[in-house]
Amino acid sequence: MVLEIPLHGKDGFLLRQRAFDFFGRYATTTGAERGSTEQQYSGLLAEVVVRQFLNLPHIEDDKDRNINLGYDLQLPSGVKVDVKCRGGTRPFEEEYEGSGEMKREAKHNLFARQVYDENLNTDIYLMMHLRTPNKYKMPGTERQRSWCLYVCGWVSKERVKREGVYLERGAITERGGSWFPYRGQEIEFYHRNLNPILKMEDLLNLTLIDVEADKLKNGHYNLTTIDAIRIAMDLFARGLLEKKHIEFIKNKAGIVGAAYLIFKSISAFGRMVIQGKTDNYK
Questions:
Q1: Closest CA to 54 of 74, 69, 84
Q2: Domains contained in the chain, number
Q3: Contact 125, 154 (CB under 8 A)
Q4: 101 & 210 share domain
């Protein structure tokens, strides 16, 4: 479940304009893996919206905002929050279409250097997604109705370090029906492993005790179901998994129809290749 906050109309435009007014002062222009202009604006806008909904001081009135490096804002409970937001022209989807008639689960990305830097002392990451028009110039206009902020959930920094998947610069990742290389060192953390937020005010109830509990939580695996299936097929082909294991995975993942036929044939063919029996494959 994802919380949606529309940012169109007069009120939404005022928030976008406020973020744009701050942008020149807070944007980062140096650093090999700094976020793009659009990414930085998305993050700043998300922070502006959070402060507005929680009645926290505006950025220019927060004395700590220019001093600390590891977090964007601090909740009344003392929890330090680093707001993470990336955007695009599509709404946030917890699952999206991929090849092979199987949906892919959504993931979130963080720069690895931020996660592993002990000097960046945030307690949690607040993960968000910004939907934007196809073509716009910051901060957009009142009439553009595509603007929407999705509050996806939160997770402790320590759990991201423990469970997130590290990918080197140039590593290939999947997005919809396409593949692309990462330009920086990234941490992938899957959406299903976040702690959901039903309404923005729920953040005011978040305590350091909750953060400590999340550090010890064991989430679901941080890869798509299709990737788990690819791994299972390889292990089956190598004789490390039996047919009963494949049936369990098939049922657990809900593999049916054409996807199951592909899954079954590739698994069988892979085993024949490894065993040197491809001449008998029909």
A1: 74
A2: 2
A3: yes
A4: yes
* Domain ranges, residue 165: 3-220
For residues 79 and 123, the answer to whether their CB atoms sit within 8 Å is yes
185 in Cβ contact with 166 (< 8 Å)? yes
152 with 199, same domain: the answer is: yes
CA distance 180 to 218: 29
Q: How many helices (H) and strands (E) does the chain have?
A: 8, 12
What's the CA gap between 32 and 42, in Å, rounded? 19
What confidence score (pLDDT) does residue 247 get? 78
pLDDT of residue 190: 93
Asked if residue 204 lies in contact with residue 51, where contact means CB atoms within 8 angstroms, the answer is no
Residue 191 CB contacts under 8 Å (≥ 6 apart), including other chains: 94, 105, 106, 107, 108, 127, 152, 153
Residue 55, Cβ density class (10 Å: 0-12 exposed, 13-18 middle, ≥19 buried): exposed
Strands 124-131 and 80-88: parallel
Query: 149 by DSSP, 3-state: which?
Result: strand
Angle between helices 243-253 and 257-275 (to 10 degrees): 150
| SS3 state of residue 230 | helix
Amino acid 257: pLDDT: 54
For the chain (length 282 residues), average pLDDT per consecutive 10?
94 95 70 68 94 94 82 96 93 79 84 92 97 91 95 98 91 72 89 95 97 94 76 80 79 61 52 46 35
pLDDT on residue 281? 34
What pTM was estimated for this model as a whole?
0.82
